Amino acid sequence: MTVSAAGAGQIIWVLGVVAWYVIRYPFARRAKRLRVVQDQRSKIETIGLAAALLGLAVVPGIYVATGIPRMADYPAHAWAVGVGTILYVAAMWIFRRTHKELGKNWSITLEIREKHQLVCSGPYALIRHPMYTSFLLMGLGQAFLLSNWVVGLAGLLGFAILYFLRVDREERMMLQYFGPEYRAYMDRTKRIIPYLY
Fold this sequence. Notes:
Four Helix Bundle (Hemerythrin (Met), subunit A), membrane, EC 2.1.1.100, protein C-terminal S-isoprenylcysteine carboxyl O-methyltransferase activity, mainly alpha, 4% strand
């Protein structure tokens, strides 16, 4: 039995989402054990997280399970599935590295935990927000893997909403907590794309 390019793209997308969950789960469990010393959660952040969840998981999940919305389908190509696979693998590699580097400092929301340290190693040596980089790569990978205009753009839109609602607030929180140390870190790094932005 041969799998079509569209079917292969969907299978790889599902495997990517499973990998995302497997990577995140142990860190989420450990994070609950540490005391939060500063919390800047807000409705705006909740909207950003919900948009990312919808665009990178719910909308494509519905599409993979049901084919809806079929009217936005376009022909799938093996080269696009190949590009999407490379992007998704890169996203998962960066996602895993960010969690490993952050360790106990990781949080899904804007929080500072007890004994929080500024992490400047691994991917953080080049960019301040490599987790957002992984989400951007996931959104791009999704656009290549799932041959549907609505679903492809949903991932990028979900990422963009999260990024633009959250990154400035996150950097203000880090400046407030780490002061000149974080300012110096900002001066020598880019936000999400090494050497560019």
